[in-house]
Design goal:
The protein has about 375 residues and is of the alpha/beta class. The protein has eleven helices and twelve strands. Bound molecules: zinc ion.
Length: about 375
């Protein structure tokens, strides 16, 4: 059993992401629809964790609202002021497909605060590992604009803040959301003390971002790894990527802390993803990371919730991750896992293997 922190605040669920942001203008042949990024995926995850009893094995955490001083470590003052004004007005877009509703700035700061608290709880020794179930997500947010449902860079701000507080020399961030972690990449592009790895669907969102040749710059050269997997990658491709690219990269880097941008849109049920994972795959990926964290950094592993848009399936994937983190025997009875595992092309396919062979050379540059 591990002491696993679990940060959640109802306020994060009150961010109003407005109408459907995939087709922002209803009309013509587009019927009005709800936003892809909405609270129910996360609320249902929290509810499932309560219903199975797993929540009783977790340590509740409640972060403060992130301070402006901490936000300015990553974001520009001009952007924060624009975001505050949009939030006060109660509607608008913070950049590209980043809807802002009433109080969204305050709620986004609360979301970032959950990420800060999850990391802080592990570093101060209150927990072995932790999970921040926060919203809005953060990995697409850039220095001076919101993007892809993300308003503030939860992980960049939390990592920058806690690195200074605890004088950390090396932190690794792994992003397994199905979309590229462009904001996190931007935040640490020129730094060699933060290793950023993103495993995502090739050229999904943001279009034109996340290529394998984007490797960092200056001191940061080789410390940014992108693994843009082909559409349709399944459990075999993800586990092979973990064994052949991610774990070797982490081992070469020797981080003092591993943070995961934990999206669930690589699940087979996701409306915004084209991958084939089931909840068992998320359990295995988490278990492998836990073993790696145990070996490298005293088990310090923090997950920060990102995307995942299947209202029915995100809860089962999230529960599997939390079960693994806690080392608990309490599992949720996922009705879909077995069937998904039997689908065709779940094993590593030759064209996926070709990409992994290229990605392995990125790791060699780190050693
Ligand atoms: Zn995503």
């Amino acid at each position: 059993m591990h002491r696993t922190g679990f940060a959640f605040h109802e306020h994060c669920m009150w961010h109003d992401s407005g109408p459907c942001s995939i087709f922002p203008t209803a009309g013509g042949h587009v019927q009005p629809a709800g936003a892809a990024e909405h609270p129910e995926t996360k609320r249902r995850l929290r509810n499932l964790v309560e219903m199975t009893g797993l929540i009783d094995e977790l340590t509740p955490l409640k972060g403060e609202v992130a301070s402006e001083k901490d936000l300015l470590r990553f974001h520009t003052a001009e952007y924060l002021s624009r975001l505050a004004k949009l939030s006060e007005r109660g509607h608008g877009d913070a950049g590209d497909c980043a809807p802002v509703g009433k109080d969204s700035y305050q709620i986004a700061r609360r979301s970032t605060g959950q990420a800060i608290e999850a990391i802080d709880a592990v570093l101060r020794g209150d927990c072995d590992n932790a999970y921040a179930l926060c919203r809005p997500p953060g990995h697409h947010a850039e220095r001076d604009q919101g993007k892809g449902f993300c308003l503030l860079g939860n992980i960049p701000v939390a990592v920058m803040t806690t690195m200074e507080k605890y004088d950390l020399k090396r932190v690794a961030i792994l992003d397994w959301d199905v979309h590229h972690g462009n904001g996190t990449q931007q935040a640490f592009w020129k730094r060699d003390d933060v290793l950023t790895i993103s495993i995502h669907h090739d050229n999904n969102y943001p279009i034109g971002s996340g290529g394998i040749n984007e490797r960092g710059e200056g001191d940061g050269l080789n410390f940014n790894l992108n693994v843009p997997l082909p559409a349709g990658s399944g459990i075999g491709a993800y586990l092979a990527c973990m064994e052949r690219v991610i774990i070797p990269a982490l081992t070469a880097f020797r981080p003092e802390l591993i943070v995961v941008a934990c999206g669930y849109d690589a699940s087979a049920m996701d409306p915004l993803g084209c991958m084939l994972l089931n909840s068992d795959a998320f359990y295995s990926l988490t278990q492998q990371l836990l073993d790696t964290a145990e070996m490298l950094c005293n088990g310090r592993l923090v997950m920060v919730h990102e995307g995942g848009y299947s209202e029915g399936y995100v809860p089962f994937c999230g529960h599997a991750v939390l079960q693994a983190l806690a080392g608990s025997s309490i599992s949720a009875n996922d009705p879909a896992s077995k069937e998904i595992s039997l689908w065709g092309q779940q094993s590593l396919q030759p064209h996926q293997n070709e990409l992994l062979i290229k990605a392995e050379t990125l790791v060699e540059a780190l050693t």
